[in-house]
Queue: 2 jobs
Job 1
Amino acid sequence: MTAAVEFHHIDKSFAAVAALRDVSFAVERGDAHAIVGENGAGKSTLLKILAGSVRPDAGELRIDGAPVALAGPRDALSRGIGLVHQEMLAFPNLSVAANIFAGRERTGRCGWLRDGEMRDRASALLARLHLSTSPDAIVDALPIAHRQLLQVARALAFDCRTLALDEPTTALTSAEADHLFRILGALRADGVTIIYVSHRLDEVFRICDRITTLRDGRRVETVDRARATPDTIVQAMVGRALEPRHHPIADVARAGTPLIDLERLTTDCVRDISLTVASREVVGIFGLVGSGRTGLLETIVGLRRPTAGALRIDGRSQRFRSPREAARSGVVLVPEDRQREGLFFNFSLRHNLALPAAEASGRWLVRGAERAAARDLLRRWRIGSATVDLTDAAPDVLSGGNQQKVVAAKWLATTPRVLLLDEPTKGVDVGAKYEIHGIIREVAAGGAACLVVSSDLPELLTLVDRILVMREGRLAGEVAAETATEEQVMRLAAGAAA
Amino acid sequence: MKQLRDVRELSTIAILIVEIAFFAWYLRPMDGRSHPFVNGANALLILKYSSIYGIAAIGAAIVIISGGIDLAPGAIIALTGVVLGSLFVDSHWSLTASALAAVAAGLACGLISALLIVGVRLPPFIATLGVMGIARGAAFIITEGRYFDVSGGLPAGWRPLGVPLDWTSPLLMVALALVFQVLMTKVQWGRAVFAIGGNPVAALYSGVRIELVQASVYVIAGLLAALSGVALTIVQGQGKADLAMGYELDVIASAVVGGASLAGGRGSVLGAVLGALIFGVLRNALPQIPGATFYDRLIVGLVVIVIVVMDQLLQRRRA
C-alpha cells in the first residue's frame, strides 16, 4: 500500500535559519496523522510545502507514491490536498458560497459564473457540516468558528482526499471543537486522509492514529497512538522532562492589597463588572467567544470608554484615555493578536522591545542601553540562542510562539504593577507555554496584580488563583482554581443550570 | 450579497436625484424664460462631459476593488489625444486608424503599470505615478507645445455608426459600464478581482491566479483611460498635452463616491459611473450660480468627504 503523502529527506532554510532538516515520514492513506512539536519545530513549514506555497531546498514530496514538484497552492488543490490554515483565511467581503468556491468557481462558457449551482452545492456542504449559515451571508458577519468551518467546506468542495489542518481549534470553544472532530470522523469514514497539527495533545490523542514529533526542524519519532502517552510525546517535543508545576500560592496572594478594583463598570460590551485583584494574585477570566472578555481588558486600559461605574488602581480612581496613559500608571495589556496588535514588523526586535518602556517612561531612546536591554530580555525569555543574536533581526524570522514571547517581554520590560494578558498562550507550544506561565507567576510574586483572559480551561486551572466566568458581558460567577472543575466553569460560561 | 450591493447603488442614485432636484429648484428661472439647468441640451452636455470621467472611472473602480490604485488615467487621456491628433492631423491617417493607434498607446501604458506592479513588485501608487509622468512627458514631447485641431478634419454632420456625434461618448460609457458590471459580478474574473482585494493571502492559497488578474486590471484601466481620451479629443475637437490635468483624482473620487473602498474588495462599476454623473452635474450647475465660480473646487471637495462619511456611518449602523 502506498502512502497518501510521503516526505522524503526534506530540507528547507529561510535566510540562515534551517526550518527543516532531513525530514522523512509517510502518512498512510485513510489515517489521521498528527504532527506535533514546539513553535519553530517546523510544522507550519512542512504544511506549507504540502500546500505548495513553499518549495523544499532538497528532498521530495511524494503523493500517492509519485514524486511531485508543486508549482503553487493551485497545483496542490488540484492534486486533492486541502489545507485549513491556522489564520482565518477568508474573504470578508464575499458571500459564503463565493468563499467556498473562491479560485475554483463553477463556470460555464467564457468564465460565466454558475451562481445558482454554487449556491446549491454550498448549501449541501453547509448541511453536511451542520452549519446553519445561509450560502448568501457575507462572511464579515459570521462568527469566527463558522469561518474556520468554512475552510473545511472549501476543502470538501474540491473533493480533497487529503485534508491538512493547522491548529484549527485555537479560536473555537470546546463545543465547536467537538463539532469539528465529529466532522473529521465522518470524513475519515469517507476515506479522507487527515493531517492534524496541534499543540493540544488531548485533541491529538482523541482523533489521531499516528503521531509524528518534530523538534528543531528534525523528525524525532513517528509512533502509533496506542504506544504513546501525552508525557512521552511532550518529552519528545521538548527533549527534556517538564517538572509538574506547583499549584498557585493562593494564601500568599490573598495577603496582598487590592491593586485593581472595578465597581459596576459598564461599557458598550460589558455591564456591571465588579471585581478586585490583589497584589501578588493571578486571576483568570474565562468566557466563550463574544462574552466580553477582551472588551473588559480594553476598557481597563482606556481603549473603550466606560459609560458607568468606577475603576480604581491601587486605591486611586482612574479613567485612562489611552493605553499610553495606562502604561504610565503601570497598567499594561498584552494583546491577543500579535500580528495586528502586538508587533511592528518593520522594526528590529531591539526597537520592538524598547518601544513600550521608552513611551511609558517618557525617556529618549538611548542606543547602547536599548541594545543591552534587548539582549538581556531575549536571553531571559530564551528567544533565539546563545549563538544567534537576534537583537537586530525582524520579528518575522521568529516562530509564532517566540513572537508571542516578544510581545509579552516588551510589556514586562516596563515593570508593570498591573498586568493584563489576553490569551497569552494562544497557538503556543507546551514548552513556551510553560515558560510564559512561569514568568506570569514570577511577575505576580514580584508584587504585581495579573488578570489573564484565556479560553484554554486546563491552562487557567493550573495558572491562576481564582477564575471569573463571563457570559454575555456580565460576570456569571467566580470559582477558586483549587477546587474548580472544568465542567463547573463551562456550565457557568454556557449559562446552563448548575 | 446581491441585496447589500443593490442598496449601495440605490443610495448613489438617490444622491444624484437629490442633487438634480436641488439645482432644478435653485436655478429655476424667474419669469417665463426657459429653465437654464433642466433642458434637453444641458442634459446632453452634462452626459457628454461626465462620460469622459465616467469611462475612466470604470477602470478606477476595478483597480480600487482589486486593492490597488491608478494615478495614470489623466496622463493617458492626454497621451491618447495627442497620438490621435498627431496621426490624424499631421500624418493624415484615417480617423479609425488614428484612434486605434491612440488606444494602443493607452494599452501600452496600462501594460507598463502591470509589468512594474506584477513583475517588479512596485507598489501600485509608485508604479502608476511613474507611468503618469512618462505618459504626460511623452505627450509633451510629441506636441512640442502645439495642439492638434482634430475637429477641422471631421466631416460635417458626421454620425459614427449612425449615432449623432454628441451621443457617442455617453452611449459608449453606458455600454462599457454594462459590460464591465457583468464581467465584475457574473464572471469568474470579476470574482477573482473582488477576492484579491478582500484578502490577497487567502486568494493566493485559494489558487486564484493573482498575478494574471492583477495585471489584467491595470491593462483594462489603461484601455478605458484611452477610450476616454479618444472620446474627449473628439468631443473637444483638439489633442493637446495639457489635457485632462488632475483627472486621475476626479476619477478616483467618482469611484469612491460610487462605493469603492480604498481598502479593496468593495465597490461597483455602476456606482463609479453614477459618481462621475454626480460630479458632472456639479461641474455643470455651479458655474451657473452667480459668484460660485471660485467655490466650485471647494464644493466638489466637500461633496467627496460628505458622501463618504455618510456611507461609513450607514455601514456602521448596518453592522
Note: The first strand of chain B starts at residue 148 and ends at 149.
Job 2
Amino acid sequence: MSETALLIALLAAATARGAAPLVLAALGGLFAERSGIVDIGLEGKMLAAAFGAAATAAVTGSAWAGLGAGVAASVLVSLVHGFACITHNGNQVVSGMALNITLSGLTAALGYAWFHEGGQTPLLGPGARFAPIELPGAAALAGVPGVGTAYREVVSGHNLLVYFAAAIVPVAAWIVYRTRFGLRLRAVGESPDAVDTAGISVSVTRYRALVMSGVLCGVSGAYLSIAHHASFIRDMSAGKGYLALAALIFGQWRPVPTLGACLLFAFADALQARLQGTPLPLLGVVPVQLIQAIPYILTVCLLAGFVGRAVAPRAIGIPYLKER
Amino acid sequence: MRNPTTLVVAVLVAAVTVPAGHVVAQEFVPAIVFDMGGKFDKSFNEAAYAGAERFKKETAIAYREFEVTNEAQREQALRNMARRGSQVVVGIGFSQASGMERVAREFPNLKFAIVDAVVDLPNVQSIVFKEHEGSFLVGMAAAMASKTGKIGFVGGMDIPLIRRFALGYEEGAKYVNAKIEIYRNMTGTTPAAWNDPTRGGELARSQFDRGADVIYAAAGATGLGVLQAAKDKGRLAIGVDSNQNHIHPGSVLTSMIKRVDLAVYEAFKAARDGTWKAGVRSLGVAEGGVGFSLDQHNRGLITAEMEKRLQQARADIVAGKIKVTDYMAGK
C-alpha cells in the first residue's frame, strides 16, 4: 500500500503547489469580474508582482518586503486598468491585453537596467524567500501509517503562501456572499443602475474590487518569484494568468467551484509530469506529446460534458455611464 | 520607401570593393544573434555571449548583437545584421537554421555561422557538438554519485537534440550501473519550454519525490528551476552548456560544458584573420568541445575515485574504445 499511497500523497502535494498561484489569481479575477470589470490582465499583474517581489527581495534580503512590493506593484497595475476602464470607460479587454503586453516587456526592461542579468533578477538566498514550513506534529505523526504520510507529504512542508491561498478561499466566499461590500460588489456587476439609484457609487465599488484583485494577484506573482522559484525570469508566469481566468469561468465566478477548477488544472499538470516515460497498465509507454496534452483534453471533456452553461455577471464588460 | 534591393546591391558593392583577405580592423564588425532564453540564461546563450565578449576583449573590436524574444524576429535579426554590413553573422541555436538559410542565400558574399544546426551552403559554417559524449560523462558522474540508484533527466523542448543529451546521459549512467533507474521528463514542445523555471522545478521535484537523487537539466533557463529544486531538497543537479557549478555551490554535482563560447570566438576570429572556412565543424570530447566541469565549487562532490573513472572514460571516448550512440545519427 505504502508505494501507491505515497505516490498519491506526492501527487496531491504537487497539485497544491501548482494550484496556489492559480487560486490566488483566479480569486483576484473573481472580485474584478463580479464587479463587472473584465480582468484579462491577471497575467500582467502577476508578472508585475513577480518582478516587484523578486527585485525588492534581492535588494533588501527580506521576503516580507518583497511580498509587500509585489502586492503594491500589482495593485498599481490594477488601478491603471481601473483608470482606463472605470474613469474613462475604455474597453476592458483592450486595456487588460495592453497591460499584459506592457508588463511583459517592462519587467524585463527594468530587470535589464537594474540588475544587468538580461531581465532576470539575482538568485535569492534563504532569508529572502518563503521557505517550506514543517508544520508541528509532522515528525510526531510520521510513524502513523496513512495519516502520518498524508500529513507529512500533503499538508505539511509547503511555503506560507500556499497556506495563505488555501485560507483565502473561504474568506473570499465570506466576503462575496456575507458582507455588505460583497452584496454591493455582486449588485454592481449585475445591475449597476440599481446600485446607483440606491445612492452607492458604482465607480468606487469597482475600484475597490480592482484593489482586491491587485492584492490577490500580487500574492500570486510573489509566490512564483520568491516562494516557488528564487528569482524573476522574463515571462515567468507562462500563461498562468490566462489559466486562472479560465478556471474562474469554469468555476462560474463562484469561489469554491473556482478552487475546484484550479485544483483540477494543477492536478492534470502534476499528473502529466509524473506520467511522462512511465509505462501505464495496458497501454505501455505512451508518447510524451499525448501525456502533455492531458490537461487540455481533460478541460475540453469537462467543459463539454459536465459543466453547465457559464453565466457571466450581467454587466460584465460594459462601462457604466450615468444618465444625466 | 527605401528599396531593399538597393541596399543589397550597396552591401555587395561594399563587400567587393574591400580587398579579400585584407580586412581593415576598424571596419570589421562581427554580429551575433542570440536565441530565446536570452544572453544571460546562465547556460547556452550565455556561453555564446562569453565567447563574443572574449573576442571583444582580446581584439578591442565591438560586435553587434540581438536577443530574439519571439520567433518572428530570428530571420529579421539575421537579415538586419547582414544589411548593416557585418562580415560574419553567428546565429545561436538550431531554430535559426531556416532563417539563416534564406539570409545566407541573399548575401552570398558574407560569412555566416550557426551553432547547433547544419545549413548546407557555401558561405555557412555549421558548428555542432557531440553532446552525447559530454552527456555520457555526466551520466557516469550521476550514477557514481547516486545513493538511491535512481537518477533523473529534465529536458527543455522535446526535440531530437535534447533527446541526444538524454540518450548519452542514460548510456553513461548504465555504463557505471547497469541496473540504474532513470526518469526522463521534457518540459514542453514549444520554445517557451526553454524559459519556464517554475515548471522545471516542479518536474525536478516529481523526480526527487520518486527517489532520484541526481538530476541532469538540459533545458536552458528552465534548468535554473531544476538547480533550485535540488538545492531546496538537499539533492544534486547537473548543469548544462555553461559551467553552472557556481550557481548553487555544493548542490551542483558538475556541469556538462558545451564550448559554445569557443565556437563563437573562433568563428569571429577566423573571419577576421581570413582563415574562415565553410562546412560542418563537429566538436566532441576529442576536440575539447564538450566535457564535464570541475572547479572549487564542486571539488567536494567529485571524489578522487570518480574523477579517475571519468578521466579514463574521457580517454576511452577519444581513443574510440567507448562508442556513445548519437540519437540524431541513429535515425
Note: Chain A has one domain: 2-241.
